[in-house]
Design goal:
396 residues; two-stranded antiparallel sheet; mainly alpha
């Protein structure tokens, strides 16, 4: 490891808490929205769309500020403090309009932190091997918080109402605010006199990078079918609600193992392009298994492919974007990628998933084959484009 243990610990704690917050509510909140709160699929889609909407603007503003004016640690601390308070408020809201507004405000502050956790890592750590040792705490956090929530629900029987996921996420955000202020190093903004986000956007004039961003938008959008539909789908095929969070946590356990053991080796041997292709292929296989829907054991096992896809496409995509960026626009480049994937991609994907689920909902329940066909077809097209057209070269 090329950095001190104290720095590794600080970066790892930030990475862990960042994704524990998201992982506490994202996999299971849909069950609360569609169940106890009796929201429509479209309304649930709009609640899940708050984070993608916020990612259209918050990361770009945060990246510009971090590259030019304020050390990253203070932006992270302030944003997570406000995000945590808003999550605790959201846990007590039962109607659509107020919940949408509070979740959008939360998402604005949380979205600002997503690229900055990566940016401070890339600023402090230059070799991919050590970067991977920090990145692995993201899936570990997502998995552990899922298992913790499952255990909590087993003991305290809170799964019926489902508000516990928002309370847990809020508490974790407050903890992260304190941890960032106390533990993270204070980086020095570049202050080059240029506008960093403009330099990052200029990269879209390069065809290869533009293609990568467009494919990333579509691929990230299809991930919302997984988040919005999986919890209800699993319950419909016979999996107990209190077990859903733990089963979906399999993906994060596999993601952690793949990040630690495979990611660096795949990039070194296969390059960015073919590692990204493998990632998309894993998501396609997952949705093909969802189309089969039986046996139940297959649906449990196939959760591992979401974890592999996230490592080999989403995380490797962030590393690829950093590789083509200059050191003076680290935060802005990460902001651009998050705006494209978690912003445009997840927003469009959330709206599409909500619309498809409403169309596939009957008095007897959801027609899941209609739902899962859509992401399967779109991912297949993206896979062909990435494999055939994309080159994936980085500056030497």
């Amino acid at each position: 490891m090329s950095i001190s243990f104290d720095l590794y610990l600080a970066l790892s704690v930030a990475m862990f808490l960042e994704y524990a917050i998201w992982g506490a509510w994202a996999p299971v909140l849909a069950a609360r929205l569609l169940g106890p709160l009796n929201f429509t699929g479209k309304q649930a889609g709009w609640i899940y769309a708050t984070l993608p909407l916020a990612c259209l603007y918050a990361p770009l503003v945060a990246g510009q500020i971090a590259d030019s004016y304020v050390p990253i640690k203070w932006i992270l601390a302030a944003c997570q403090l406000l995000a945590g308070i808003l999550l605790l408020l959201a846990a007590n809201i039962r109607t659509f309009g107020p919940l949408f507004l509070v979740m959008l405000l939360h998402a604005t502050f949380y979205a600002a932190t997503l690229p900055l956790v990566n940016a401070i890592l890339f600023d402090q750590v230059k070799d991919a091997g050590t970067q991977g040792l920090v990145f692995l705490w993201a899936p570990v956090a997502w998995a552990l918080v899922g298992y913790f929530l499952t255990g909590w629900r087993w003991v305290f029987k809170t799964e019926k109402e489902g508000r516990d996921c928002l309370i847990l996420a809020g508490i974790l955000a407050l903890v992260m605010a304190a941890a960032c202020a106390l533990l993270l190093p204070t980086n020095e903004p570049a202050r080059t006199g240029e506008i960093p986000i403009v330099k990052a956007l200029a990269k879209l004039g390069e065809f290869d990078f533009l293609l990568f961003v467009l494919v990333s938008i579509f691929a990230a959008g299809m991930m919302q079918f997984y988040f919005l539909g999986s919890a209800r789908f699993m319950q419909d095929i016979g999996i107990a609600p209190k077990n859903v969070s733990g089963i979906m946590g399999i993906a994060q356990a596999v993601q952690a193992l793949a990040t630690f053991f495979l990611m660096g080796k795949f990039i070194a041997v296969l390059g960015h392009k073919w590692t990204l292709v493998i990632g998309l292929g894993c998501w396609l296989i997952l949705y093909l298994a969802y189309l089969a829907s039986r046996p139940v054991a297959l649906i449990v096992i196939i959760q591992a492919f979401h974890g592999l896809a996230y490592v080999f496409f989403m995380i490797v995509g962030q590393i690829y974007a950093n590789a083509v960026a200059g050191p003076e626009i680290i935060s802005s480049m990460q902001a651009l990628i998050f705006a494209a994937t978690t912003g445009v991609g997840l927003f469009v994907g959330t709206q599409l998933a909500g619309w498809v689920m409403d169309r596939a909902r009957t008095e007897a329940g959801f027609q899941w084959r209609q739902v899962w066909t859509v992401p399967a077809v779109i991912l297949a097209i993206c896979l062909v484009l990435l494999a055939v057209v994309f080159r994936g070269q980085v500056p030497q």
